[in-house]
Amino acid sequence: MRTHGFWTVAPGCGEIRDTELEPPAAGALRVRALYSGISRGTERLVFDGEVPESEYARMRAPFQEGEFPAPVKYGYASVGVVEAAGSDAAARALLGKTVFCLYPHQCDYVVPLSALTVLPEGLPAARAVLAANMETAVNALWDAAPAVGDRIAVIGAGVVGCLVAWLCSRLPGCRVELIDIDASRAQLATALGLRFRPPSAAAPECDLVIHASGQAAGLRDALRLAGQEAMVLEMSWFGRQAVSLPLGEAFHVRRLTLRSSQVGSIPPGRLPRWDYRRRLELALSLLTDPVLDALISGESSFFDLPTVMASVLDRDANTLCHRIRYPSPAG
């Protein structure tokens, strides 16, 4: 069958391309996409051609086609319905199921059974596009290891920062502040049940600071807010951008720890018991709370992506997760 996928063909430029799908063989399934989500941080770097050459291999999405910088078909937050399956019983058992897949923006696709995770009961397909972001947030908490009663600052009220703060706020006795320079994010924080502060009003002497703003100034604020012997967890990925930090001043005397976190690797202490499937299943189960719909800031039709993508990824856009809606079979 013929279907359609979105490709970045040059920095800042995308187009819809046709592609042919073979019928699913044994152990494979064909999925019709319902929704996909745009991951603003990573997809901006891809769309703008800013992925460093040294990271081309590590940055590959599971079902990426093409090569960086372009043309490339990229993405990893697709939710759809299984419409066809190979002849084996395990694959056919998923017919009609709603599933999540780390697949680029495409109307239909054929993938192995192992690439699909069935949505848990109570999770709408429209919200499940947040699954990859929630996985990132879960991995961050594993890396940061917050404890009961900690004073925690999360800098950057984007989707991942909000999810991290929301998870931390559910730990008993923790005081969590969500920090951002954009005062309009206070309303979002309230919707999520979080305390919002601008950087100038943030409480100092934190036990843990998690940085997810993607801005060098935010990381400098993180070092300033960290208390004695505290950890600063860096979640932002700056691509080619060099970052200048004040590692003089009180950095050494306060014995701060600056640690990176990246969802591509499960922390070593969990590897004996956890794999990527179990982590994704956990992320999906955590998305059943309707309050998280506040993180979806807009929706567009798939066929509008060539014009929509640039505006969604604009650094000045007040966008959270932008959801892509796919046509129905009749449409």
From TrEMBL:
<keyword id="KW-0560">Oxidoreductase</keyword>
<dbReference type="InterPro" id="IPR036291">
    <property type="entry name" value="NAD(P)-bd_dom_sf"/>
</dbReference>
<dbReference type="InterPro" id="IPR011032">
    <property type="entry name" value="GroES-like_sf"/>
</dbReference>
<dbReference type="GO" id="GO:0016491">
    <property type="term" value="F:oxidoreductase activity"/>
</dbReference>
<protein>
    <submittedName>
        <fullName>Dehydrogenase</fullName>
    </submittedName>
</protein>
<keyword id="KW-0479">Metal-binding</keyword>
<keyword id="KW-0862">Zinc</keyword>
<comment type="similarity">
    <text>Belongs to the zinc-containing alcohol dehydrogenase family.</text>
</comment>
<dbReference type="GO" id="GO:0046872">
    <property type="term" value="F:metal ion binding"/>
</dbReference>
